[in-house]
Specification:
Oligomer: single chain
CATH architecture: Orthogonal Bundle
Strand content: under 5%
Largest sheet: none
Shape: globular
CATH topology: Globin-like
Radius of gyration: 17 Å
Number of domains: 1
Order of helices and strands: HHHHHHHHHH
Length: 153
């Protein structure tokens, strides 16, 4: 800490840490509780697996540039989850029916997944409560066909 204090600052003043990073944990806690409650799950661990599965299912359908556009509207912790463990060599798959994508969500982590049949809509509802919906809708409209429907609550 003393080393940081002794480091000279460039420019007229120091840049403050953005609020979204300062309160990232509190914002994520609020989101994950929303997701848990909307889905009727018992624990936030179950909600986390559901959220991760929904984000990865969506990500598999996007080219990298489109995925990064989407990631930029996510709060920091969700953004980190969205891009974590990404196999950039994995080919994209097309958007398919809600039932098919829901089964993909439910197959994530097998026996450790309690995602309900409404998982995608449940996560979409929680997401829309916790992000700037105008920005989200603007980005979704720029993504491939199927993206808007995927995030329909």
């Amino acid at each position: 800490m003393a080393l940081l204090a002794a480091t000279p600052q460039r420019g007229a003043g120091a840049v403050t840490i953005p609020v979204e990073y300062r309160q990232a944990s509190a914002d994520f806690d609020r989101f994950i509780l929303d997701a848990r409650d909307i889905a009727g799950l018992q624990t936030t661990n179950q909600a986390y697996t559901m959220v991760q599965a929904v984000l990865y299912t969506f990500r598999r359908r996007l080219e990298i540039s489109d995925a990064l556009l989407f990631a930029n509207v996510l709060p920091p912790v969700l953004r980190a989850i969205f891009v974590a463990d990404w196999d950039l060599e994995e080919p994209t798959v097309p958007f398919s029916g809600r039932l098919t994508m829901t089964r993909e969500v439910q197959a994530f982590r097998g026996d450790h997944n309690a995602s309900p049949d409404t998982a995608i809509a449940d996560v979409a509802t929680a997401l829309r409560r916790n992000v700037d919906e105008t920005m989200l809708n603007r980005v979704l409209a720029r993504l491939p066909a199927g993206a808007v429907d995927f995030w329909r609550a």
